[in-house]
Amino acid sequence: MVEPVVRLFVMRLLAGFMVGLVTATLLVALMMRQGIEPFEMQPLPQAQRSCDDFPPLKNDNLLRAARGEPVDRVPVWVMRQAGRYLPEFQEVRAKHDFFTVCRTPELACEVTMQPLRRFDLDASIIFSDILVIPQALGITVEMKPGVGPVLPEPLVGPADLARLNQTGTIERLKYVGEAITMMRHMLEGKVPLFGFTGAPWTLMGYMIEGGGSKTMSKAKAWLTDYPEASQQLLDILTDQVVDYLVMQVKAGAQMLQVFESSADHLTKEQFLAVSLPCLKRIRVDLLRKLADEGVPAVPMVLFAKGGMHSLTEQAQTGYEVLGIDYSIDPEEARKRAGPNVTLQGNLDPQDMYKPPEELRELVLTMVRKFGKHRYIANLGHGITPQTPIESMNVLVQAVHDAL
Question: Where is it predominantly found (predicted)?
Fold first, then answer.
């Protein structure tokens, strides 16, 4: 009687094992079909998710430049430095859609780290997107290949402001904070980490236009047709930006950049009336909220692409650093901004396609015009997808060799 019982027990045990094996196999297959690598999704140990005990910073040239202090070398980083020009980034994107990468801290950190493995950069910037704020407010944002961001249900009139869900937005953006904290540990103090946001006018444009626009005609029409609703929307976005940046600093961001990428669609008068008040309030309210919570402030960069006409006014907003686009000569930019603010920029991204020797001379000339004091080298806009990788090496080395 014992042998049949043992045989039955063994058969049931094997059957249970086979069921579990098949289930696990199906689960892994399902994850792979959805572009999720099981090993990539393993969370870091809790110690590496904590905002306590970050590794000490080894290269603080970026922060010193922002504060107007002496630097060992001119610091350099590049907007969109974690991007499509890198084959390893393309490999990640082949498996995961854009916003999955943004919302998965492990993937966001991997992409953030990629350019640092290749180039001797002086800063990292967390991989994310400015349109996560509209998403958190309840606006659908899709990233379509060859098109870019698309918002299929844009704001058409003032009544649409009621669609914006302003409750719990920062909680819905907590994945950005988690990625920042994780990244601070992964960096091991190698370089400082940027957080960032889109500015209210730029976000407003996307939300009304339904995507990128060469004219911003619908958003500009709101300013004249719906002035009260426009101000209400700008106020909503300013409040959200402030809270979003507070969260990023508390998570470990060591520097912040505010991207006013659509300043070029405003005249100087419009910029001063529409954009600049929001930009000022972001800084004032951010500093106040951080102080109320006993959190140290971090340096801030204001980059208003196409807003070089207002550098004098921007220099009075209190931002430690002003981003300079490629439309203005470095010496003229310094003249307009004055001596008490750090400048960041401003190589034309198209220059990155020039032969290495020519590119090197352009970079050397740029850096020497800006000088070593209160300067951070960068492009005058984001790096473009087909940029040769060798051009990044030339850029970084030339910046570090210039002075």
Answer: cytoplasm
